[in-house]
Design goal:
With 298 residues, this protein is of the alpha/beta class. It contains ten helices and eleven strands. It has helices at residues 21-43, 58-73, 89-101, 120-125, 138-145, 154-165, 185-194, 208-217, 260-263, 277-296, and strands at residues 17-18, 48-54, 77-83, 107-110, 174-178, 198-202, 220-223, 241-244, 248-250, 253-255, 269-270. It is globular and about 55 Å long.
Length: 298
Amino acid sequence: MMTASYTQENDTQTGALLLDGRVYAKELKANLKQATAAFVVQHGFAPGLAVVLVGDDQASIEYSNVLVKAARNSGFEAVSHVLPGHATPAELAALLENLNHDQTVHGISLQWPLPPQISLEAATNALDPCKDVEGYHPLNTGRLFSNLDTFVPPTPLGGMLLLDYYGYNVEGKLCLQIGAGVTVGRPLLALLTGVNATVLVANKLTPPAILRQLCAQADFVFCAAGKANLVTGEMLKPGAVVMDFGINFVNDKMVGDIDFESVRRVASAVTPTPGGTGPVTTVALLQNVLKAAKQQVQ
């Protein structure tokens, strides 16, 4: 466990601790920038990131822009590749194949969701697992569930790092995970079980009555279902810790999966959206790119 040096920002009306990812991300960025500069001095070039986006999903577009900017600010080379929503599996595979062989690209961040005509299998099979910094490839997924060194998907990794930073330990605790998707839910399950949490898994199709029963028992609630207002304060066990990975847009405003106003009145700690897990996710992804670059020059 890392030792946190932070100032607890509490909601003055409710006492809920805001798990502000921007605080921790600032420290991580400073360390990453130093490590990247050292890599450049040693090897004469910067680590390279390629961000690949298919279609016009609003959340993915926003994250892609943030990621490219953050990478460049940290000393990386970064470029974005955008394919139209009607792109075929073959067109995506051809782009990924070119990036696999591009020696200036050390990490490939394939953005989710993909359009329906491109399957998970088709997309991940085209990725070089050595450049798969999102941890999508079956080889990297298998290594994660086997507790072996791999590229840990940055979104759930960022969430776990943020909990650790603020001093929370899920070992032996009852954790409710809502969502089992590719980018967050499945790898989060591996991370939680890997540190001996007791995990219940639900999703946005879980009947409301059952979801309420599960929420009422959980010490930690991890929301990654992609449905706004899925969890409200009245559903929670008083004092629960709530981590929201969801990204939704309601009336052009970015929100998570929780009803933040009601949740913060019951939870002991909660992540805001934006500014919660997102900033740490970005740095965790770039750490994976630097790791990939180091492995590729060995």
